[in-house]
Amino acid sequence: MIGRPRLRVPFRISVSVAFVLITMPLILGIIGILYLRNAQLARDLATEIMNRATTAVMDHTEGLLSPMARVVEATASLAKIDPELLRRPEAFQYDLKVLQSTPQVESIYVGFARDGAFYQAERLPPGLAHFAPNGMKPPKDARFVLRILDTNSGKMIDTYFYLAESGSVVAVERAPARFDPRVRPWYRGAASRESLFVSDAYVFFSSKQPGLTLSQRIATDHGHAIGVVGADISLDTLADFLARERVGRHGVTFIIDNNDRLVGYPWLDSVLRQVGDTITLATASEVGDPFVAQAVKLREAGAGDRFTAQLAGRTYLVAFTPLPRRFGKDWSIGVIAAESDFVGPIRHTSVLMIALAGGVTVLIILAIFWVSRSLTQPIERIVDETKRIREFYLDDASTISSRIVEIHQLAQAVEAMRDGLRSFGAYVPKALARTIVTSGKGGGIGGERRCVTILFTDIEEFTRRAEALIPENVLAELSLYFEAMSRCIHEHGGMVDKFIGDAVMALWNAPMTNLDHAMDACRAVLRCRAVNVQLNAEFALRGHGPVLTRFGLHSGEVVVGNVGSSDRMQYTALGAEVNLASRVEGLNKRYGTQIIATEAVEAQVRDHFLFRPLDLVVPAGTSHIIPLFELVGALDAGADGGASAAAVARCCEWRQAIETYRNRQWGEAHDRFRHFAACCPADRAAALYAERCSRFLAVPPLDDWDGAEHYDTK
Fold it and tell me: What is this structure's pTM?
């Protein structure tokens, strides 16, 4: 019983691996425990910072809105005690002090229910280009504006007093009244309730800036409406505040309402949707911020108000905290912070520790490698050489030496084996030899059926040429020729089966599988034709005549394998298709062509190569009709052996002539072939067909004529 193969490890590797297996788990274990512990501490710290940040944001948000609410409520109480107090000039001193002491308040005002009178003290935003009532730029030194809309002059007039920082008047502007406070959203919202009202975002009438209003209804003890007091806060102020309150480098703080609209967001322009005086706020999913959108979505899905989530490929800590209901809004403060902002430094330190430990380990491994190298390097070179020999790559002539006797003897034995196989490869097709060596299977008698493409070549008038040269020159010239033809065949995936005198027999799709064997064979033949021209130029320099090679291509199922005796075998292809390929090559003599291919080849590659339909034949030794084609060139004119436009035109003319011939239109076919022969005098096939047509005009063939020529000789 054969047991399992034992695991074998190189000496150099085994020592290094043993060291690594002992030391690295200890080092990595210690670093891992430290990292996990420190990471947990960092997460706990991050959670604590998040809680503090959330509390701070909530406190600061209340710090923005609560003073405003108190101012509005106090002003409403004063107006209730003395409704006319807010109409008198001394009330504006109170309003200016409110603006100076409460920087988040953009303006404070009161609108009266009875006549629509309106009194407002407003802070002028810096850089304001347009301002009511006429849309002009405010005076240069103006910092505040007092606006009075009343009927003291007998009709309703809208008057603006521009004040410097000191309170002195720098300009006055009047215009007809186009404003009624009683129709504004802040007025209507407060007039319908007893408690403080916080408006949705809208555009302020005077400054045209977006913001929110906190307003309070003023009414008598009997419930009669006196008016509404309001104070504005700009959304820019809220956005600037939230931008300063971000947690960590990648965090964001925002405020959403119960409809997931972003009431407060650090980047204001991305959340405002304004059409005229109407402003709507984008929802979390509309703002284009994947962190906010995903965090809100997870909260709605049941994640709660405190959770950890993967947002855009990072781990984030998320916290939502509701604002106090005293403002009448169901708002929540959202805080998102990247865990890496807290854990990152610890992770970086851990990576440095791992890198340091890895560096020390690498240095030790290198030292072990250096010690063992003098022993193992020659052995490794011998192993590499045997691998190359197994793959039949034998061109490397390097030698291996070692001071150790046994290793040196082994190296010499391997070199001798390589040299012997190199000599063997000169007598056997290299593709076959490589297949035998790499497969590890011995060569036995037998074969397999396989569809292959077969090539036969022949040199025209070689016998006469050989008689004119001394044998040494014939050998040299023929060797040069075979070398050139073999290189073309090998470069296109073929295998030279044998040399038969001056002929070459080659196969594609054996012994190595090649699904494009017909395509590669055609490319190889076209390349051989081109190389033949180059060889003739070289022969001419030597004073020798040109060599014309004829080619025959056929595809079919044959038996490929080893044939011969137990002590001397040959890898080849056998079968009727091989004989047919040989017959096809010989027909070049009759038609005056250089490359003939059967329909079995043409059908596979007709979309890539230009063929001329040559004839229907029944070669000697066969009983069925074989359509023959002349391979003219590649359809891609830029490819090796590409057909010219003139060749394409000639083939088109030839096809028309062949069609009339096969339709028994002897007269028209005769004229077409005569015209073709006149244009191409060297074309023997045209003259052959013209002669046939003349014969058929005189004596037409029988009704069962199949259009084929029957050849009884090779």
Answer: 0.48
